[in-house]
Amino acid sequence: MIDIRVLTIFPNIFDSFLMYGNPARAIQMGLVKIQAVDLRQFADDPRRTTDDYPYGGGIGMVMKPDPIVRGIRSVQGSTNEVQVILLTPQGRQLTQQIVEELSSKASLLLICGRYEGIDERVRYFVHDEISVGDYVLSGGETASMVLMDAIVRLIPGVLGSDSRIDGESFYNGLLEYPQYTRPREFEGYEVPSVLLEGHHEKIRRWRRKMSLKRTTKHRPDLIRSMTIDNEVKELLQEIESESLI
Ligand code: SAM
Fold first, then answer.
1. How large is the average pLDDT for residues 129-147?
2. 21: which of 43, 121, 158, 219 lies 20 to 30 Å off by Cα?
């Protein structure tokens, strides 16, 4: 059971996220506990203030450190087992590898910033800083949903027996092969004939080749860092010679 808490000034944002798909299934199965924690309860004034003007001037507001650190301590209780993660565009960029690493933790606390960001001193109280990409969101809530969704689907038992992660994009360091369902012909576009013939080995090889072709085109950086076995070498040569035609 993974215990995930999210510290936020907008806890209700998570209501529908937790009602559908894999997060909902994982909660129902008792494989994960996800709880949005209202940061305002840790404010120490009657107005429940969690932000203030920036020292040195400038536009916007900055989230105060004291409510956040009180929130961290409250979730940590007396243990140090909680992995505290700040969602920030300045963190290490989320990858499938990082998701795997975090999915093995027993307890996570995700801290969501808002406004112009969080007082710098909060960094002394967190273990990790994660970015979901090189762009700026309005708040850490959507970023934390991205992270939680990716974690939850890695928990054994969450995906139904008809879904698998081992062929998915990034799992084997490649993008996934193209997928098709009915109809067989759609607006003039046919399903590749190899998928209709029922020859499992040919389908396996075709899928691996398409995976490599797609990755070469869209993410050559992934190809450069993968292990090249004999079949991959052969398939890459085929892809190269076909592209010369
Ligand atoms: N001024 C900050 C900066 O330039 O680094 C950005 C603040 S952003 C408007 C408000 C909050 O959204 C951040 O504190 C962070 O929690 C969240 N956020 C924005 N972009 C993000 C990203 N790419 N990954 C993770 N969290 C992000």
1. 98
2. 219
Q: Is 231 in the pocket of ligand 1 (CB under 6 A)?
A: no
Cβ contacts of 94 within 8 Å, gap of 6 or more: 130, 131, 132, 133, 146, 147, 150
Query: What tokens does 184 get?
Result: 């067989």
Give pTM, 2 decimals.
Answer: 0.94
Classify 67 in phi/psi space as left (phi over 0), alpha (psi -120 to 50) or beta. alpha
Among 107, 97, 134, smallest CA distance to 34 is for 107
For residue 100, the CA-to-ligand 1 centroid distance in Å is 23
Atom of ligand 1 nearest to the CA of 63: 14
13, 130, 136, 141: residue to mutate for ligand 1 pocket, most atoms within 8 A of CB: 136
Better-scored residue on pLDDT, 136 or 167: 136
Atom 24 in ligand 1: which residue has the minimum CA distance?
131
Helix, strand, coil % over all residues of the chain, rounded to 5? 40, 20, 40
The domains found in the chain, sorted by start residue, are 2-152 (3.40.1280.10), 185-244 (1.10.1270.20)
pLDDT tens, position by position, 139-157: 999 999 999 999 999 999 9
| Spatial separation of the C-alpha atoms in residues 140 and 120, rounded to whole Å | 16
Q: Is 84 helix (H, G, I), strand (E, B) or coil?
A: strand
Distance 139 CA to ligand 1 centre (A): 6
Q: Within 10 Å of residue 9's Cβ, how many Cβ atoms?
A: 20
117 lines ligand 1 (CB under 6 A): yes
